[in-house]
Amino acid sequence: SEIRFASQTERTWQLHPTGIDPCSNQQAPISQGGGGFRCRKDRRQTVRPAEPHQHPGSGEVAQHAWISTHRMLRALTLAIVVAIPLGFLMGMSSLMNQIIDPLVEILRPISGIAWLPLALFIFGVGDTLPVFIMFYVGFFPILYNTIAGIHQTDRKLVAAAKTMGVSRRAIITHVLIPSALPTIMVGVRLA
Question: In degrees to the nearest 10, what's the CA dihedral of 27, 31, 37, 43?
């Protein structure tokens, strides 16, 4: 970035490519010569962007917004892929509900922010960390709304399908999913 110095004689220069001021705390850079950076004493300075990619209309904000949106969509997709089948499993089988529910109830009250130190240690800095935190936050609303949607399904519909000899897979696809879908979508919206 470009730094403009205001003093008796005003001069402009470009920062060192590393972004580190090669001069000491009391000195201000003047120019970059063939032999390196020259510094002089100065008291006042104003900083302004010099690169065109730093201006608001350059698309940098849109690029960062796309990166964040992409991370959010990956986390939401992962939460949907994991939570909905698990919710169906827990909603349809009381044994699986008794096995999985205690673990879910232990993890659910922990805030997503509280996972940052451990997740930072496990995943490091990068795309995986924010995707994990967003997955964790979105997982529980989808899971619990899926379970609620399965439990709210009219048992007479399931019993009628069973008496007609419909397979378990057909009951899931033709009775349970259409009945639970509005509640599941509420969970997705909340996530």
Answer: 0
Whole-angstrom Cα distance, residue 132 to residue 27? 45
Cα 14 to Cα 32: distance, rounded to the nearest angstrom? 8
The answer to whether 11 and 30 are in contact (CB under 8 A) is: yes
List the 2-6 sheet strands across, edge first. 11-14, 2-6, 44-48
| Grouped pLDDT means (10 residues each) for the chain, 191 residues | 46 47 47 48 50 62 90 95 94 92 92 89 88 93 94 89 88 90 92 87
**Which conformational region is residue 29 in: left (phi greater than 0), alpha (psi within -120 to 50 degrees), or beta?**
beta
CA separation for the pair 32, 15 (Å, rounded): 9
